[in-house]
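Quick one: structure for this chain?
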Amino acid sequence: MDDLQQRIIEIALQLPGYIGYEAKERRRDVDKFTRGQLALKYSELQTALARIRAKAPLDVIVDLERLDQKIARLIARFNTAPRGYAGWFDSAQIVEADIDALTKFDADLANGVPGLKTAFDKLAAALKAKNGVDDAIAACGELLDNLNAEFDQREQFMSTGKRPALSSAENLPPPASPLDALAPKQAPSADFIALTNLKLDDAVAFSGNDYLVAGKMSYKIENETVLAFLLKDGNKQTWLRVGPHSEIAVCQEIQLRVPSPLPATLTLDNQTFTRADTGQATVTVEGAGGVKRGAVTFARYTAELDSRIWIENFGTETRVMSGLTTDVTSFKLYRR
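Got it. Here's what it folds into:
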C-alpha cells in the first residue's frame, strides 16, 4: 500500500467504527453508518456556527445564514441515500479500485471536518477582532461549496458504479441510450409533495428557525406550476421556492440593478450566473390582502455550487431574489 492509500485509510478511520467496504454483504450497512457519522460530525460544526451567529453583528447575519444553509444541505444529503445506490451495493463486479475510490470520497469528507472547524475558528476570531470578516466568511463558504461538490462526485459514483468515462474520440461523455425513454418516471417524494401543499399560516422549520407561511405565489409556466412561499418570523422573512422540476431553494430579496434586455450572464458576490430559464407566466398571489392574479415575466440564473438568482417583472415593479438550493429533508412542516 503506497503512502497515499495509507493516508486515505487513516483519514477514513477517524470515523469511529469505520470498517471499510470490502465485504459485499456489509457494504450497504457501512455506507449508512459512514454517512451517519459524517452527518453527526458536521452537525456539531453547525452548532458551533449557530453560536457564532448568535454573537455576530446584524450586517453579516445574512452571510452567516447562507453558510448555515450550505452546511445544513450537506448534513441532509448525508442523512438521505440518493436514488440509484442499490445497483452499486448489489454489483458482483466491484473491483478493488472501486472500493478505494469510495473510501477516498469518505476520507476527503472526513478530512473536511477539522478543516471546517479551523475555518469557523478563524471566522469567530475575525468577528471578535472586527478585522478580515469578509475574507473569513468567504473561506468558510468556499470550503462548504467544495464539500458539497465532493459529495456530488460521491453521489454520481454511487449511482453509476463508476466514474463517468470519456469517449476516446471526443473527450465527451458517451450519449445516453434512447431506451431510457422506456423507464418509468420517478414519482416525487412524499416530503416534496408536502412542500407543494403548504397553505397560509402553516409553520415551516429549518436551520433552527420557525416560520409561518405569510404568502404564496403560484406561477403557471407551460405545463408546470412553480411555487414561492413567503415565510415570516416576526420582522424576519425569507422565501422558499419550489420548482422548476424538483428544485428547492431558500432565498432573500436583494437589490440588484437589472439591465434591459436581460444579459446572458450576471455577476453577484464574485460569482458568475448564467441564464437558465426565461419566459412569461400567469401568477396567483395569496396573502393578507386576499387573492390576486396577473402576469409576470421571469428569468432564472444559475451558478455552480447551487446558487440561484430569480428576476421577476410584475409590470409595475421588478423583484430580484438570490439564494441556494437545498434538500427537502432540511424542512419540518406543521399544519395549522
